[in-house]
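Example 3.2
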Amino acid sequence: MPLRQIILASPETLSDMLLAAEDRYQDAEELLAQRRFDGCVYLLGSSAEMWLKAVCMRPRGLSPTDLVMPALPALKKLEHFPFYNSVCVAAICGTG
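Structure, written as tokens:
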């Protein structure tokens, strides 16, 4: 079965995304230990993006077993507001 069909057959849940973020973080730690800084920074950024999306999805009522794809368009709309990043950071810090 082609990769695209496999991916479409098993849509990503919020829990899957959080597990992927943790995997990328661990990969980044390994690259850091090997002094491969460019790859490390890339993977840390990828992890941070997934965690930020998860944090912004939780107040919208998504549970760990909910699908991520239907929630993404609503998050894309928020990116155009100047407060978007501060809202996500406040959610992470528990101040929002």
